């Protein structure tokens, strides 16, 4: 069953809009980074492994959205965030969804591995950066996640 997005007051519903601004966060703890497996009920890319992502669908700035998404999806509190680094913008055309994703890659360093997944993701794993080739061969990953990892590492 597909999850139906219900916008809050002031939010834009990008579900059926061609161009969609998003963040895609790579969470880093010491020498490891986190990938999550999206729920099978996700509107976009069910079952794919990705960073923590979300639409830029309100008037919050990127840092505020990063804090909001990490709290919502992982129960990581703002005081657990050590640093936020924004990478270079990525445009990704996706014919399957008739979308052009406008992706703001973000590296988020945290001071703890403690977290709890919400319904948006069904699994998670911490990886070392030298495991990128293994990730590509063993996991169904989002198409731009390798580009984002190379940007930051």
Q: Helix count? A: 3
* Strand content bin: 35-45%
Mean of pLDDT: 93
**Spans of at least 5 consecutive residues with low confidence:** none
**What is the alpha-carbon Rg in Å?**
15 Å
- The CATH architecture can be given as Alpha-Beta Complex
N- and C-termini, Cα separation: 37 Å
- Supply the CATH superfamily name: Nucleoside Triphosphate Pyrophosphohydrolase
Return the structural class. alpha+beta
Question: What is the 3D shape?
Answer: globular
How many domain regions? 1
CATH class: Alpha Beta
Q: Describe the sheet with the most strands.
A: 8 strands, mixed
Strand tally, please? 8
> What is the name of the CATH topology?
Nucleoside Triphosphate Pyrophosphohydrolase
Order of SSEs: EEEEHEEEEHH
Q: What level of helicity do the residues show? A: 10-25%
Structure notes:
- It is a single chain.
- The longest helix has 13 residues, at 62-74.
- It is globular and about 35 Å long.
- A hairpin with a 2-residue loop joins β1 (19-29) and β2.
- The chain is built from 3 helices and 8 strands, in the order ββββαββββαα.
- It has one domain (19-152): Nucleoside Triphosphate Pyrophosphohydrolase.
- The protein is of the alpha+beta class.
- It has helices spanning 62-74, 132-138, 145-152; strands at residues 19-29, 32-38, 49-50, 52-55, 81-86, 90-94, 99-110, 121-128.
- Strands 1, 2, 3, 4, 5, 6, 7 and 8 form an 8-stranded mixed sheet that branches.
